[in-house]
Amino acid sequence: MTLFNDYHRTVVGYHGTTLSVALRLVNRISKFTSSDRDYDWLGKGVYFWEYAPKQALNFAQIRQTQLKKKRNKNSKEEYRANEPLAVVAGTIRLGFCLDLTDPENIKYVSEVYKSFQETMDLTGEDLPKNTRRYRKLDRAVFDYAYKVIEESDPNSRVDTARGVYVPASGSKRIWEGSWIAHDTHLQICVRNTASILGLWLHHPTKLEVSDACETLKSSGAIFN
């Protein structure tokens, strides 16, 4: 098995969310919860955009737009659909990192995919599929890879995964035939939240303490 390097370095990542959630995170009232959705292409974890706060805010805007369109929202959803958005910045120690910019790690993941295929064949289950919107296959393969790595060595735990996301849609190319695409970004999936060394509010800027208190108070009745 490939031994992933322990990255003794930190990066700054950005996470888009609602203002009340952001304030609870930076004030240590709440902790991050791992995302396990069909579009989580690097598997289960907490997602950050590396050095890309605008990408994080854009993601939060897309999520909120989708929530606004949802019918029969409960009280929490109604509040979040109209709440100001925020971006949390975090210092992340990559640690034991499945870094997909390393060709050896790409080779390893491709081998894991073959093993995953064989396992699915043996169990008679259908192989998940990627679609334009969802990355069910990618998510399943990476979650399987983490399981294989950690079961092979009880002392090993994958702290983070890191990869470059390039949209597959041709309409995202900045001109015909170009390999440069809109929305290309470097994403980090944090599996071990102890790797998040510190958090601060990146957006909105110049938020007054009184504003923060009012936001936390107003959201308390909804989320407590």
Structure description:
By secondary structure, the chain is an alpha+beta fold. It has one domain. The chain is built from six helices and six strands; from the N terminus they run βαβααβααβββα. It has helices at residues 19-26, 53-69, 75-81, 103-123, 136-152, 209-223; strands at 6-18, 46-50, 85-99, 160-165, 185-190, 196-203. Strands 1-2-5-4-3 form a five-stranded mixed β-barrel. It starts with 5 loop residues before the first strand and ends with a helix. The mean pLDDT is 88. This is DUF3990 domain-containing protein.
Please state the overall shape, judged from the principal axes of the Cα atoms. globular
Helical stretch count? 6
- Beta-strand proportion: 15-25%
What is the number of beta strands?
6
Main sheet strand line-up: 1-2-5-4-3
Please tell me how large the radius of gyration is: 19 Å
Structural class: alpha+beta
Residue windows where pLDDT falls under 50 for at least 5 positions: none
> Which series of helices and strands comes N to C?
EHEHHEHHEEEH
Q: How would you characterize the largest beta sheet? A: 5 strands, mixed, barrel
Mean pLDDT over the full residue set: 88
Number of domains: 1
Distance between the termini: 45 Å
Q: State the share of residues found in helices, binned by percent.
A: 25-40%
Organism: Bremerella alba
Protein name: DUF3990 domain-containing protein
Q: How is the topology of this model organized?
A:
Blueprint: E1 6-18, H1 19-26, E2 46-50, H2 53-69, H3 75-81, E3 85-99, H4 103-123, H5 136-152, E4 160-165, E5 185-190, E6 196-203, H6 209-223
Parallel strand pairs: 3-4
Antiparallel strand pairs: 1-2, 1-3, 2-5, 3-6, 4-5
Helix pairs in contact: 1-6, 2-3, 4-5
